Amino acid sequence: MKRSAFLYAVVAVVSAAAGLGLGALVLRRPAGAPMTSASGERKALYYRDPMNPSRTSPVPRKDEMGMDYVPVYEGGDGAGAAAPGGVYVDPRMAQNSGVRVEEVRVRRMSKVIRTVGQVTYDERRLQNVNAKVMGWIDRLYVDFTGKPVRRGDPLMAIYSPTLFSTQQDYLLAIRNRSALARDTPLRAEADALVDAARQRLLYFDIPESDIGKLERRGAPTKTLTVRSPVDGYVVEKSVVQGAQVTPGMPLLKIADLSSVWVLADIYEYELPWVATGQQATMELPYAPGTTLEGRVAYVYPYLAGETRTVKVRIEVRNPGGRIQLKPDMYATVTIRSPIVRETVAVPEQAVIRTGERSVGIVALGGGWFEPRDLKLGVTADGYAEVLAGLEAGEQLVTSSQFLIDSESNLRSAVAGMGAHEGMQGAGGSTSPRTDSAPAAGRGGAHAGHEVEGRKPPDRSAEHDAHEGK
What we know:
By secondary structure, this protein is of the alpha+beta class. Among the domains are: 30 residues; 70 residues, Beta Barrel (conserved putative lor/sdh protein from methanococcus maripaludis s2 fold), CATH 2.40.420.20; 91 residues, Beta Barrel (Elongation Factor Tu (Ef-tu), domain 3), CATH 2.40.30.170; 116 residues, no CATH class. The chain contains 7 helices and 26 strands. The strands form 5 sheets. Strands 4, 5, 6, 21, 22, 23, 24, 25 and 26 form a 9-stranded antiparallel β-sheet that branches. Helix 3 packs antiparallel against helix 4.
């Protein structure tokens, strides 16, 4: 009797110990899982890969990069009240993912534009020398391209029968006028003939000085000299000595390089910062440390289709008579815009650009975040102007915002899928497809340790086998 009582006592102690161990094993919470209780605290439905929202797991685990899967809870994502359209991310997960927030502030936005410009001629300082009569170049004083000339320097001597006869007509009209007395009626007609012959010589670009020499000499010359109308450099030469020329034929092109243009390329988004009258600085690759000052004179009203840029014309003077800026040179152009905007601005990397809209993630506190559509303005120095969608003082996520955006997209997809299934019939699940399900049957206490991807046993086969018995 005593032996039986002792055996019953031993069995009771062993049973109590086994029950306590089994209870501790069943109630043990896996690492990283949310706390649950009988009072209705949060319960994790499944766990989601933070980098690939389509991958889920019924148990806590890590992805290939060592990041913890994000729990998705029953009845909401957070412990507090859900914000309309908000997304909850576990604070530990947010910290491990590198989520950083920054206060939205009003900033003074200014722009410094750095671009490349090409030096070209000032079109208002170009001069063409053309032939007005038919003839031949008897002597060419400008015998190479690039030769500097001064205003009034001889360029070429042209023999032309037309010019020779015009000289004779002019001298004959002067002689006829001299033969008449001043008080005779024919003197007025003689003066008119002299003036007409003189005007013809002027129309042939014969200068007043040469006409005066012709009057003093009293005899026509075989050739007449064509002189430079401006100071500059011969940049184009279309004739050689002895060549025949015809009326309207271009002979030389002379450019005044005391002032040149620099054509700089400005992108479309930089146009709000550029206006005529702004100062610009040029640096030359062949003269490090040398800077030249210029002024924005004109913004062209069209874009280059290949580069999607706008040409900005900057006028620059070559200092001290030295030709430092030569046509077709490249220069580094810096335009410091005096335009300053006091506006709400956020870091550019904080904005998610989808191609159709711009999204910012606002931190609401307590692990809650809210995606918002933003209306952006100009950009400068890494910041973007916010015209609508944010106010100063709010907290904006500046890094790892794609994690929260993916969570928002996943919740929207799940909600839409649930609504679609609800229309077809009751009982549709709104949870995303998981890669694995918890194992059932024996060993349920160890379900949290199952490897993702393990399939549950086929219970229908077991049922058929049982019916066959």
